[in-house]
Amino acid sequence: xxxxxxxxxxxLLYMLLVIFIHIASEGITNFRTDSLPFALxxxxxxxxxxxVQGFLFLSGVKLFLPRRDAAFSYPKFYLSRAKRVVLPYxxxxxxxxxxxxxxxxxxxxxxxxxxxxFTGGLVGxxxxxxxxxxxxxxxxxxxxxxxxxxxxxTMLVSLFAMNLCRAHLPEVVRLLTGLELTLNSxxxxxxxxxxxCGTFAGTYxxxxxxxxxxxxxxxxxxxxxTGVIDCILIWVIRNGVYYPTWADDFHVLYCTSAxxxxxxxxxxxxxxxxTFAERPFLRLTDKASxxxxxxxxxFIFITDSLLDRAGILSLTGRFVxxxxxxxxxxLGVCVGLEKLRTKN
Length: 344
Fold this sequence. Notes:
Layout: H1 5-23, H2 25-30, H3 36-48, H4 51-64, H5 74-102, H6 110-119, H7 127-137, H8 139-148, H9 151-177, H10 192-203, H11 205-214, H12 216-238, H13 247-272, H14 280-309, H15 315-343
Helix pairs in contact: 1-4, 1-13, 1-14, 1-15, 3-12, 4-10, 4-13, 5-7, 5-14, 9-10, 10-11, 12-13, 14-15
């Protein structure tokens, strides 16, 4: 399988954006909602909020890219995911537990920690790991779908199923069982459409990249228009002006177009600069990106604690200092460890 540098660059961009989402959360919460800083930060935050969907799309693509190696093996697949995804997650989850208990934020409660570990809780970003593992467990279903099912029909069904489950699955569960489904946002059904689209994009990757190359202008224009509308929607919601019931559905359209747009622009850049992604630092960063995703909130917590001790109250100043510290330390630590690992 030849190198797909556009996938590497898009993945790196998403990693940087997901860190931005988390470092911007304090400003989103505490700026006055009718202020200009809030409008700017909230818009940037909303425009970045497609990255988890994008990560799931890329995961589907990478899993189903045509390969020349041996036939697919389920034991090897699950073992590789356990090593590459689950074990790093468990290690970082344990580190967060130690931090929270050690700083007095949480009391030691083993049943609570085990439950949160299994469901992707404790820290907000862990839900992605729980969702991704659900998609991995269902790999026989996705392999069957790409071999036997119509791509267009399957993607349409997955879109409707995703929207229905996101909005109504708790109600259905309550009617059928009497139980309250409180973890709907951590179920794979909430992101089904993006992963399924990724599986077909990977299976027919040459045709997919031909499409995003040919339709680049339309994709960029669609992303710009939907992005502006999405920002307006989130602003009127946060200011209590109006709550459009269709805002979440519209956000799906923006997320889909933004994923296609970033991949299309990355493909254009990769075609013009074919060796850019081969630079040693970028290769190491790509390999370390999952660990950066897992651990960066810990550095946000530590940085915020230091800012509090220093008496820095300015939201703008805290945002700038938090960004500098978290990006530098997260990337520095994880890339450094990856470099040490590759030398051994």
